């Protein structure tokens, strides 16, 4: 009897965990987790901000200088921009969608070892939605995975369960890019007849609908025939340093 | 009694906050120690299997809620690791030395991440061997090293396991 009592708590706990695992994808479960993440992020945000303050101050000075340089560049581009609508009209090009960027501050990394992710400080209040692409100035970071009211979990490109439609910029050949572990990516699905060079740029192909075309994903580091010998397996170094992301942009596409 | 319950709850919350906020600063090549697991092992060694089970459940649930993986995944692994380590310590009646706790943390990280990997890597192209040798083992080493440092600085050379009245 005593032995049964000894293991009863263990049995109840383990059974509860299994039930939670099986029911974790229900709407109520997701909603509860999103709200709790919001509360947690609200607590963590002031600490992160304090830690980042000195760095931000230094960066601010550099950015002012960069801004001045860019202003000159913008002035030079202005003329070309003014001509764009006229040229588009001539080509009968129709604007299908409008893309806007929402900047978000990274609060921290996802504490779960089951997901390569980061937590950012904006959510549904800022019109963030599931599956929206997340980028930095260097390229694609990942996609929106879970959205709370004021926080969002971003699934990184290095997560094994995320695949992105990518293509080689040089040849335009399409493939699927996914994590190869240890912070590396791998592009699959390119026929062996395609000519590849080390250093080729890999960008999003726009297929699949999640990521717009032409966003930087990385550069080719190495390539070798896959096990079936009909296709290439291409090692890609991501363009984003996932260990040092402080600010991201969430891409919002309005049809 | 309330303090006995509140102390681990508060510690878990603080460690989770540290884990999320500080981890990017102390991570080496993307590997960061599992602070909550280290705490579960500490607590289990000091307070016994049932306390280890409950603290493991709470710590795991916190990580599941604020992280992205399935709810219950880390709760299951952490609660079981807390329980079985506490069980072993109680049965053997040994004083968990610095080295023993480091080894247990090392093994626990491997067990937990192998379990998580078995679920989350399903359908992915990452080879399981790569995951174990490229991610799990370095995290296990790092966590064991952090355990060693914590015990060195806190002067915690192991306590005899004792149960809390409320959690017997």
Short note summarizing the structure:
The complex is a heterodimer of chains A (255) and B (168). By secondary structure, chain A is of the alpha+beta class.
Please, could you describe this protein's structure?
The complex is a heterodimer of chains A (255) and B (168). Chain A is an alpha+beta fold and 255 residues long. Chain A has 2 domains: 25-157 and 243-255, Thrombin, subunit H, CATH 2.40.10.340; 163-238, Beta Barrel (Thrombin, subunit H), CATH 2.40.10.350. In chain A, 34% of the residues lie in helices and 34% in strands. Chain A is built from 2 helices and 12 strands. Chain A has helices spanning 2-23, 27-90, and strands at 98-109, 117-120, 133-136, 139-147, 152-156, 163-168, 174-181, 184-191, 201-204, 216-225, 231-238, 247-254. In chain A, the strands form 2 sheets. A 6-stranded antiparallel β-barrel of chain A has the order 1-2-5-4-3-12. A 6-stranded antiparallel β-barrel of chain A has the order 6-7-8-11-10-9. In chain A, a hairpin with a 7-residue loop joins strand 1 (98-109) and strand 2. Chain A is globular and about 85 Å long. The termini of chain A are far apart. The relative contact order of chain A is 0.14. Chain B is mainly alpha-helical and 168 residues long. Chain B has a single domain, classed as Orthogonal Bundle (Arp2/3 complex 21 kDa subunit ARPC3), CATH 1.10.1760.20. Chain B has 6 helices and no strands. Chain B has helices at 2-26, 35-47, 49-66, 73-92, 98-120, 128-154. The longest helix of chain B is centred in the C-terminal third of the chain and has 27 residues, at 128-154. Mean pLDDT of chain B is 82; it is low at 160-168.
């Amino acid at each position: 009897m005593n032995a049964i009592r000894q293991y009863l708590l263990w049995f109840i706990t383990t059974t509860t965990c299994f039930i939670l695992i099986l029911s974790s994808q229900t709407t109520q479960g997701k909603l509860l987790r999103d709200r709790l993440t919001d509360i947690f992020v609200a607590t963590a945000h002031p600490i992160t901000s304090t830690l980042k303050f000195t760095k931000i101050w230094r960066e601010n000075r550099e950015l002012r200088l960069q801004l001045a340089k860019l202003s000159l560049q913008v002035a030079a581009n202005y003329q070309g921009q003014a001509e764009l609508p006229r040229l588009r009209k001539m080509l009968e090009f129709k604007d299908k969608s409008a893309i806007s960027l929402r900047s978000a501050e990274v609060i921290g990394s996802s504490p779960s070892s089951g997901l390569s992710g980061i937590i950012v400080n904006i959510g549904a209040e800022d019109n963030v939605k599931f599956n929206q692409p997340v980028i930095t100035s260097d390229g694609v970071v990942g996609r929106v995975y879970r959205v709370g009211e004021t926080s969002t979990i971003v699934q990184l490109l290095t997560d094994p369960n995320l695949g992105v439609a990518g293509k080689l910029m040089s040849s335009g050949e399409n493939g699927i890019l996914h994590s190869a572990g240890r912070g590396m990516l791998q592009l699959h699905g390119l026929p062996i007849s395609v000519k590849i060079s080390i250093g080729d740029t890999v960008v999003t192909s726009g297929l699949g609908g999640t990521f717009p075309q032409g966003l930087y994903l990385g550069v080719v580091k190495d390539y070798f025939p896959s096990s079936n010998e009909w296709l290439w397996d291409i090692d890609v170094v991501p363009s984003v340093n996932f260990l040092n992301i402080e600010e991201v942009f969430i891409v919002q596409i309005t049809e | 009694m309330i303090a006995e319950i509140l102390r681990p709850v508060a510690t878990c919350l603080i460690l989770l906050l540290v884990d999320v906020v500080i981890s990017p600063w102390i991570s080496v090549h993307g590997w960061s120690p599992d602070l909550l697991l280290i705490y579960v092992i500490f607590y289990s060694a000091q307070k016994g299997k049932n306390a280890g089970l409950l603290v493991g459940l709470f710590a795991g649930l916190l990580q599941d809620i604020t992280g992205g993986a399935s709810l219950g995944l880390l709760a299951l692994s952490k609660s079981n690791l807390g329980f079985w380590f506490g069980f072993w310590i109680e049965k053997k009646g040994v004083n968990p030395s610095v080295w023993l706790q480091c080894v247990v943390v090392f093994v626990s990280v491997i067990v937990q991440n192998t379990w998580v990997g078995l679920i989350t890597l399903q359908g992915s192209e990452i080879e399981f061997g790569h995951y174990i040798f490229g991610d799990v083992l370095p995290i296990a080493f790092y966590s064991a090293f952090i355990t060693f440092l914590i015990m060195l600085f806190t002067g915690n050379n192991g306590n005899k396991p004792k149960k809390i009245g409320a959690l017997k």
